Amino acid sequence: MLRSGRSFISHYKIARQLYSTISRFSHVETLRDGSADTFRQQAFAPAKPALLPRDHFRELSALKKWFEPSPNILTACQLNASYLSSYGETLVPLELTRDNPSNSTDDVSSFEQLHAPLSFFIEWTRHHQRSASASTPPTAPAGRLYLAQARVSDLPSPLGADLPTPALVTLAGKGDVYDTNVWIGLAPTYTPLHRDPNPNLFVQLAGRKTVRLFTPDVGADVFRRVQARIGAAGGGGGSASMRGAEMMQGAERRVLEAEVWGSGEWEEGRAGAGLEAHLEAGDGLFIPKGWWHSIKGVGEGVTGSVNWWFRALDTKRKQALTRATACVAGLLTLGAHSAATRLRDCASIAAMSQPNSKNPEQSEAASNDEPHT
Ligand SMILES: O=C(O)CCC(=O)C(=O)O
């Protein structure tokens, strides 16, 4: 059967868009095991995005205690209100996004950040999940809430204890965590393209997310092009490492989203520059410092994640560790006397690699970490 010319063209456009979206993003590779050595050698040291083996973080307490299966929607989760309500008075940061009426070009009319008790957010998700699964048509939602960038250090300590720092984080970097944040919402959720000034271990606690990543240079190009485009229309000017209101609404949101999730132009001559990862509860993704990423909560029900922004070893410490390793290896080939002398050398080199070393070489160790928002 022949289609009308217009309908054929629109089908062709959709097919082309789908094809280009599918083919432009390669899958993030999965590490062969979750050991600290493999993580360090194949992801952390070469600054390469990588997925930990599926379910690696399945045992995290938060994953088991904060969420439970939805009784109404197969495969969806909900918040475990009976556990979390004990901390209902805790103030948490929320993002409120309001949808625009359908006759507007922007799909989001306003974006606000506020603080409200956790109990309010629990009630909001419960209400929305109930009306989404009810057979009666739901009333138009007044807006969407996203519990975004809630610092674990600001949560009551039992909740913080449900998110112990993974060994990979303490073993691979300087051993300290810059910041840990949780992100909980009802799918769909959306975080625009940005980059983090520290390495990021991103772990999915509930529901599903899709992450798209760009190399530092391609991401910077995409961001610049979007800024230029909306700058011409009088908008933009935000920072890519700040979760600012400008990237969550209006022209910047629309153009950024189209560039990353639609038929953006970044791919020309840039094979392999865009990566994609699909995360489910228990999965973990390493996002190296400076890699650009945009994240969508997909599917149905509650989606929850936690990220650990941790510090990379500074160059001096990296060099000292390499020298110390070589020094110890050399010991094995020496006689007792020379070995004792060599051992003293090794000890002083190893001291240099300690984070709080008083060695003058270390005073320069203050990292190039920038603040997160
Ligand atoms: O999960 C999200 O929506 C955002 C997380 C994020 O931006 C990050 O980990 O850098």
Automatic annotation (TrEMBL):
One Pfam family per UniProt: Cupin_8
Start and end residues of each JmjC domain: 126-325
Stretches for region Disordered: 352-373
Polar residues bias (residue ranges): 352-366
Designated name of the protein: JmjC domain-containing protein
Organism: Cryomyces antarcticus
